[in-house]
From TrEMBL:
Keywords: Calcium, Membrane, Mitochondrion, Mitochondrion inner membrane, Repeat, Transit peptide. One of its GO terms (molecular function) is calcium ion binding. The keyword Transit peptide applies. This is EF-hand domain-containing protein. It comes from Aegilops tauschii subsp. strangulata (Goatgrass). Residues 109-144 form the EF-hand domain. PROSITE patterns: EF_HAND_1 (PS00018), EF_HAND_2 (PS50222). Coiled coil: none annotated. SUPFAM superfamilies: EF-hand. Its main location: mitochondrion. Pfam families: EF-hand_8 (PF13833). GO terms for cellular component: mitochondrial intermembrane space; uniplex complex. GO terms for biological process: calcium import into the mitochondrion; mitochondrial calcium ion homeostasis. It is found in: Mitochondrion inner membrane; Mitochondrion intermembrane space.
Amino acid sequence: ISLQIIRLEFSHYDVKSTNTIPAKDFALSMVASADMNHISKLLDRADTLENDPYLKHLRITFEEFKAFADLRRRLESLTMAIFAYGQVNGLLTKQDLKRAAQHVCGVELTDRVVDIIFHVFDMNNDGHLSSEEFLRALQRREADIHQPAARGGPMGWLNPKNRSSLLQMLR
């Protein structure tokens, strides 16, 4: 995905040309391609950002938006890293996600971005990422950008049969 496309999408949300976008708009950009079976719940979670005293005032910069787009482009590596960290720790925490993004994908996510990701995708509010839905939303988004008809790709790692071979590779 080109830098121009990322800039266009960012400017769509940056209506006041402040070079930042509201947390809610960032959340909506993440769930834009979510599975239709789950999209209403994810949209509701994005809406609840406005009820959180900390998150409702957060603004995401273009650099943060671009870093997240870079992470989406490295989805297969991110998927493997998330399941590797998740297998080691049981459940994925905010620090696990940041570590996986940085060490495996070379992308540094800010605390603000991670807080918004967790607000939307920590479905039961236990402090752990609902990683399958998060990865599925990202995978669908990338598929829509590159090949709207294709839906395979990195999400094969979500298949339980593939997880054991993934763990073998990471040892």
